[in-house]
Each structure stands twice: as structure tokens, then as C-alpha cells.
Amino acid sequence: MKFKNTLLVCITTLMLFSCSDWIFRIDIPQGNFLDKKDVEKLRIEMTKEQVEFVLGKPVVADSFDHDTWYYLYQMKRGMKKRGEDFRKELIIKFVDGKVSEVVGDFELSEEFSTPLDQ
């Protein structure tokens, strides 16, 4: 009788482990999703309002430096077969209310150094 109970527990445990891939886990996105096309619209000397129109409000605004905006995006995958977790960031620095520098995980367009006024 004891052998049958142990065998039943072992078989049930194996069946549960084999079904672990059937459990659906959702992806958890956090932050500002930035499209490459939108980032390519950025130009040097754009105003804060223009940047906000193109990219939206930043997820993080530096409390001590109001001239630095942080756009962060993180994707935590629920299931490994859908891909790896990743994080992207874009940091925009302003001088006198206009874009002076953009750094991060995105490539800027060739026209970035040309202001919109020209």
C-alpha cells in the first residue's frame, strides 16, 4: 500500500512538472516605449514642448536637474520562449530650454545636427 502511494505521488509530481510550460505568463512592459521613427525626428535645438510632442512626457524627470529628461523602457518576459528581457534608455539634455545632447540606446538620424529652423 505504501509503495502505491509513493508511486502515485511520483507520477503526479512528474506530470505537474511536464505541464509547467502550459502556464501562460504575461510580459510586463514598463516605461516609455519609443519607436525608432519617433527618435529619428529629434533635432538639435528643439524646445522641450517639441520633444514632448514627438516622444511624450518622460518617465523620469531629474529632481535636481530640470534640464535632463530620461526615457526608460523595460520589458520583463513572462516566458523565455518569447525572447529575453531587455531595457532601453534615452537621455535628453537641454541648455536654455533647447536640446543640446541626446544619448542612449537609439541611433540618431543624420539630420539630428541640423536645427528645424533651417
From TrEMBL:
It is found in: Cell outer membrane. InterPro entries: BamE, BamE-like, BamE_dom. It holds the Pfam family BamE. Its main location: membrane. It is a lipid-anchor. Residues 31-101 form the Outer membrane protein assembly factor BamE domain. The keyword Signal applies. PROSITE patterns: PROKAR_LIPOPROTEIN. Gene3D superfamilies: 3.30.1450.10. Part of the outer membrane protein assembly complex, which is involved in assembly and insertion of beta-barrel proteins into the outer membrane. Belongs to the BamE family. This is Outer membrane protein assembly factor BamE. It comes from Paraglaciecola algarum.
